[in-house]
């Protein structure tokens, strides 16, 4: 329904959205310059983004794994899974690897969308299959109350709506109804409103977001995890999605809050990428950089356990060593002792 709104080519673009487009155009123009940096540094960023994306995208949906198991699950050629959550996180990582390797030739069609779903859902019975029963998006409160946040497209209508969505994307791309980043965000919104699968729609939407970004020339997701940025702004993600889905079935919705959110995430990723590749580095390892970057992302106090979650694949000994070094240098301070100790940046 969002892409349909744009078919006339007469939709005005709000100033806030136009600013995002201008900034993203500038970022893409500098992209080649950034990717000429140290091959070893870029390799470390790619590996880190792959792990962060798999962990964060699943954690948004309530699927998580023990931090101590992350490297075994995501790096080992043939991991032994302890539960379904581990299998789904590895499946998301495999889907990411497919995008990173073959994005230019992956067709954005129903077959690819179903394959992404199958990869992220493991061996569950309806992996890769559209939903068979109607399912609304329900919000549950701590006191037990519930409310219907959004009524999704019925199961019976889903196949036809998905076919229409893919066709609308092709036409929009060919005919230039709106600038490509806006079309990407609109497609993402429409997919989430259709809600084609019983479960796993959010994860599929983020994989398609990454795929379409690559195909449109915005490759920052190769080095900075878009999924991690979404997780860090999860409240805004859900808020703008709810705002933009109201009236969607009638084509009377306002898509711009969610479109601006998608563009905001892409811009934030480019800003972080520029900061990371532009830093003057002391001769230290990529894992140390990973821990230091995670510390910088905390606005207030944090624990070692929370820091470890931000540093998948980094050992606890390494995390603690970096903390000791930063404390000795006077950059951070520690309150308390043991696992409950709270750390905080100075200044």
H/E element sequence: HHHHHHEEHHHHHHHHHEE
Uncertain residue ranges: none
End-to-end separation: 49 Å
Q: What's the CATH first level of the largest domain?
A: Mainly Alpha
Give the number of domains.
Answer: 2
List the strand order in the largest sheet.
1-2
Strand segment count: 4
CATH superfamily of the largest domain: Fido-like domain
Give the helix proportion (percent range).
Answer: 55-70%
Any idea of the CATH topology of the largest domain? Fic-like fold
Radius of gyration: 21 Å
| Annotated CATH architecture of the largest domain | Orthogonal Bundle
Detailed description of the structure:
The chain is mostly helical and 347 residues long. It has two domains: 2-278, Fido-like domain (Fic-like fold), CATH 1.10.3290.10; 286-345, Winged helix-like DNA-binding domain superfamily/Winged helix DNA-binding domain (Arc Repressor Mutant, subunit A, Orthogonal Bundle). Helix content is 59%, strand content 5%. The chain has helices spanning 2-6, 15-34, 39-60, 70-75, 84-102, 110-121, 158-175, 180-194, 201-215, 226-232, 234-245, 256-278, 286-297, 304-310, 316-328; strands at 137-140, 146-150, 332-335, 342-345. Strands 1-2 form a two-stranded antiparallel ribbon. α2 runs parallel beside α12 (256-278), α7 (158-175) packs antiparallel against α8 (180-194) and α8 runs antiparallel to α9 (201-215). The longest helix has 23 residues, at 256-278. The model has no long low-confidence stretch (mean pLDDT 89).
Outline the fold blueprint:
Elements: H1 2-6, H2 15-34, H3 39-60, H4 70-75, H5 84-102, H6 110-121, E1 137-140, E2 146-150, H7 158-175, H8 180-194, H9 201-215, H10 226-232, H11 234-245, H12 256-278, H13 286-297, H14 304-310, H15 316-328, E3 332-335, E4 342-345
Antiparallel strand pairs: 1-2, 3-4
């Amino acid at each position: 329904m969002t892409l349909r709104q744009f078919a006339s080519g007469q939709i005005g673009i709000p100033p806030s959205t136009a600013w995002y487009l201008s900034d993203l155009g500038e970022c893409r123009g500098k992209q080649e310059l950034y990717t000429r940096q140290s091959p070893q540094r870029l390799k470390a960023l790619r590996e880190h983004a792959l792990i962060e994306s798999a962990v964060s995208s699943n954690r948004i949906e309530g699927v998580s794994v023990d931090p101590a198991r992350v490297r075994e699950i995501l790096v080992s050629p043939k991991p032994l899974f302890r539960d379904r959550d581990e299998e789904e996180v590895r499946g998301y990582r495999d889907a990411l690897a497919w995008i990173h390797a073959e994005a230019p030739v992956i067709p954005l069609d129903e077959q690819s969308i179903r394959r992404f779903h199958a990869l992220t859902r493991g061996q569950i019975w309806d992996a890769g299959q559209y939903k068979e029963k109607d399912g609304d998006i329900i919000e549950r409160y701590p006191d037990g109350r519930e409310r219907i946040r959004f009524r999704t497209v019925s199961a019976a209508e889903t196949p036809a709506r998905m076919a229409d969505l893919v066709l609308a994307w092709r036409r929009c791309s060919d005919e230039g109804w709106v600038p490509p980043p806006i079309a990407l965000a609109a497609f993402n919104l429409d997919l989430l409103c259709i809600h084609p699968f019983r479960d796993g729609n959010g994860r599929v939407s983020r994989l398609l977001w990454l795929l379409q970004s690559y195909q449109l020339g915005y490759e920052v997701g190769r080095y900075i995890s878009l999924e991690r940025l979404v997780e860090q702004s999860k409240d805004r993600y859900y808020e703008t999605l709810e705002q933009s889905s109201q009236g969607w079935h009638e084509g009377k919705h306002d898509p711009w809050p969610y479109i601006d959110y998608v563009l905001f995430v892409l811009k934030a990723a480019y800003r972080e990428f520029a900061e990371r590749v532009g830093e003057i580095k002391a001769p230290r390892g990529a894992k140390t950089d990973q821990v230091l970057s995670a510390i910088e992302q905390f606005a207030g106090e944090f624990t070692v356990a929370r820091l470890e979650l931000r540093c998948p694949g980094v050992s606890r000994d390494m995390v603690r060593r970096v903390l000791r070094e930063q404390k000795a240098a006077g950059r951070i301070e520690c309150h308390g002792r043991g696992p409950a100790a709270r750390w905080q940046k100075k200044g």
